[in-house]
Amino acid sequence: MKKRLLILLTLGVFTFGMAQTADAPWRVNISANAIDIYPVGGTPSTLLPAGSQGGFFDDFTNVGDHWTIGGPTLSVERFLKGKFSVGAMLSINNVFKIEGNTAGTEYPYFSVDGFIKYSPFTGKGVRPFILGGWGLSSFESISLDDENPLFLSSNVSQQVVGGFGLDFYLASNLALSVQTNFKNPYETNGVRHFQHQAGLSYTFGSNDRDKDGIPDDKDKCPDVPGLKEFEGCPDTDEDGIPDNEDDCPEEAGSKELKGCPDSDGDGVADKDDKCPEESGSVETEGCPDSDNDGVHDGIDECPDEVGVASNKGCPLDLEDQDGDGVPDAEDLCPEQAGTAEKNGCPDVSDAVVQTMNNYGAMINFMANSDRILGKKMFDTLEKIKALLEENPNGTFLIEGYSSSDGDEAYNQALSIKRAESVRNALIKMGVDVGRLEISGQGEANPLDSNETAEGRAKNRRVQFRLKMGN
Question: pLDDT-derived band of residue 233, with 50, 70 and 90 as boundaries?
Fold first, then answer.
């Protein structure tokens, strides 16, 4: 019998100790109970007067008359993760409706059980449940004068418990509960019996870690107090974008920029804008390009003079036209970038450069566009890529051109974008980014007359210029 007490105490410590280490709601229930032993024929001879017989009751004409209604039954539950809960239940009654019982004789009843309950549905309204567990019960008085009193008494039997029931929710934390439990002892002094219950259950506590009124299972930010309209997440900067979706949660911004501000209104968030107080573009990291040379003012050391990226945005020294480091006076190829070892001439032959330019003339753009369209254009780019792979030395300047449609400043900027489109396409095909630079030539050097549509179409092109020999 000592084992019974140890198991029961262990179950109690597990059930009630959980509250000290986890956040979860609790539930208490108080019910009336009805003890019924007839349907199972479980009355032991020790409960019957001399000469009586145990077993099934022969007369069931008065249905329910064998229920001994009394109580109370008290239970406490703690909800676990998912749809399970664990709890303990104590019931008392005075049973007198027993087969063969002498009128007026009552048998004090008590039981204490630990159980695990499963509720498949968690919504409002009616929730069915099933439970199973283990406990102790007795149908006789237990005297403190006994040699083994209370739970150690020989009148107490161990039992397994199984049951089912329904919760009818009257409010979010209040329910009318009905259930039936079958208690089957596995000791000879035990009594198989049903215990029916009806009463009220009250849920309290919270599984709301951040105490914002939104349950953790519905809270997208369960550790930070938030707002209902944002599913439990806060909006620190009050810009209408919850912090969990806001790249700048402490600065009010726009939805288009994921909650970040844009002080100069150029479409580049301040956190990514190299010039947050000056309007620029996404392509120039938010900085302006005053001279339209493709090098934005944030890194252009000569922002008011058209230059090249290789010279930090400044014009090339006129004494070295091709910028290959070989002065023009010593450069045998002053207009073609080369190497000092070859006296300023390139490693790549003029024939290769001319072939690339022939291909470049075939890459034409629509008016007012820098997009490369059509399989034919990409086939041409593949040929240029093949030439670059066959001639691994040298850096090439991709020069973009435009027709005379529109004003000169617009055409200059458009020609840079066209050169950039070709460079990006070649990089995607696998060409080393370090071998390609860009420059915008605007309306300069037309291949054909700008007076005709056909001529203007030819002038919207790119050309390749060998820049360096290493």
Answer: very high
Q: Which of 204, 219, 252 lies at the terminal end of a domain, its last residue?
A: 204
Q: Give every CB contact of residue 272 below 8 A, 6+ residues apart in sequence.
A: 285, 286
How many domains are there within the chain?
2
Which backbone phi and psi does 88 adopt, to 5 degrees? -135, 150
CA 71 – CA 92 distance, rounded (Å): 5
- Better-predicted residue by pLDDT, 408 or 154: 408
Q: Would residue 59 count as lying in a domain?
A: no
**Would residue 331 count as lying in a domain?**
no
Reply yes or no on whether the pLDDT at 87 is more than 90.
yes
Give dist(CA 312, CA 125) in Å, integer. 72
Would strands 436-440 and 395-400 be described as parallel, antiparallel, or unpaired?
parallel
Distance of alpha carbon 293 from the chain centroid: 44
pTM of the full structure: 0.41
CATH of the domain at 191: 2.40.160.20
Say how many C-beta atoms besides its own lie within 10 A of residue 233's C-beta: 24
Q: Please identify which residue in the block is written with the tokens 């009220």.
A: 200
Q: 75 pLDDT band (50/70/90 cuts)?
A: very high
- DSSP string for 340-388: GGGTTB-SS-HHHHHHHHHHHTT----TT-----SHHHHHHHHHHHHHH
What is the SS3 assignment for 35? strand
| pLDDT band at 296; cut points 50, 70, 90 | confident
In Å, what is the CA distance from 335 to each residue of 255, 328, 393, 465? Answer: 51, 9, 18, 10
DSSP state, residue 313: T
Q: Tell whether 306 is covered by a domain.
A: no
86, exposed or middle or buried, with CB in 10 Å at 0-12, 13-18, 19+?
A: buried
145 pLDDT higher than 70: no
Q: How many other β-carbons are positioned within 10 Å of the β-carbon of residue 378?
A: 13
- Residues 462 and 418: beta-carbon distance below 8 Å: yes
Distance of alpha carbon 165 from alpha carbon 184, whole angstroms: 18
Q: Which of 204, 236, 253 is the last residue of a domain?
A: 204
* Phi, psi (degrees; rounded to nearest 5) at 229: -65, -15
Q: What angle do CA 143, 146, 149 make, to 5 degrees?
A: 70
Range of the domain at 38: 2-48+64-204
For residues 405-411, give the mean pLDDT: 88
